[in-house]
Structures are given as structure tokens and as C-alpha cells.
Amino acid sequence: MYKHILIPLENSETDQTIINHVKPLAKTMGSKITFVHVADGFVARNIENLNLAESEEMRADAAYLKKCSEELSREGLTVESKLLCGEPAIEINKISAEMKCDLIAMATHGHGFVKDLILGSVAEELRHRTDIPILMIRAPKAKSNEK
């Protein structure tokens, strides 16, 4: 059913939620997984237009993608990763279509309506852009240091 699953990662604790959820699905279905991270800082958005060098943040993101890919590869899954630059929802939509993915699986923060209005939501924007099914898993809220 799902031959190619695209998993957008944001290089945060939230990612483990979707990875843990998709891993058994991919193993059962024999799915290929593509991890993607969209760098959207100033350098990433202007790297080609201004002929800029890769930023430290982009190098860290690439290393993180490699680490995630290697971990799942060691478990016998077929995995690749791509570091993209630009507007996350646009780039995720574009790469998922280009690679003929049949599922996009992503973790969401579940900020709530007001915070999503202010901050925006990649998941919400992507939902309106793509025809590919999206599996959204809400990540647990970060534990506060309060007792």
C-alpha cells in the first residue's frame, strides 16, 4: 500500500514521535523511507541567489539527517535523506510529488488554533497543497522543569 513514505524532520525531539510510529509500518509494508529537512534560515533561502556558503545550521541539519538514516538502515529499512532549502510546506510538497511518495508522515506540535495562526503550521499548509495522504501524529508536549 505504502511503497514510499516521506518523513519531514525538523531536527528536534518531536521527530522521534513520527519515526517510532512509521518504523513498524515501513517494516511491515516493505516501504522505502525518505527523510527530508527543509532549511529555511536566511542563508538557506538565499544560498543560490547570493552564492552563499552552507551555514553551520545547514551542516548540522545534514549530519542529523545522516544519523537518522543510518539508524533506520541498520534496522534493515531502505532509507535516504534530502536537505532542501526554502519554504518548508512548498518544498515538502514538491519533493513528495517528484519522488512519487504515497504517504507523507509527520509529527505535529499541536500548538492550538491561536498559536498556529501566529506561528503558522507547516502541517496545515501542506495539507492544503498536496493530494498525497498525510499521516499526522501529535508529539507529546515537552515536559516543563516545574515540580
Provide a concise account of the structure shown:
This protein has 147 residues and is of the alpha/beta class.
Rg, nearest Å: 16 Å
Assess the beta-strand content as a share of residues: 15-25%
Structural class: alpha/beta
The CATH class turns out to be Alpha Beta
SSE layout:
Elements: E1 4-8, H1 14-29, E2 32-39, H2 42-46, H3 56-74, E3 78-85, H4 88-98, E4 103-108, H5 113-119, H6 122-129, E5 134-138
Parallel strand pairs: 1-2, 1-4, 2-3, 4-5
Helix pairs in contact: 4-6
Write up this protein:
The protein is of the alpha/beta class and 147 residues long. It has one domain: HUPs (Rossmann fold, 3-Layer(aba) Sandwich), CATH 3.40.50. Helix content is 45%, strand content 22%. It is built from 6 helices and 5 strands; from the N terminus they run βαβααβαβααβ. The chain has helices at residues 14-29, 42-46, 56-74, 88-98, 113-119, 122-129; strands spanning 4-8, 32-39, 78-85, 103-108, 134-138. The protein has a 5-stranded parallel β-sheet. Helix 4 packs across helix 6. It is globular.
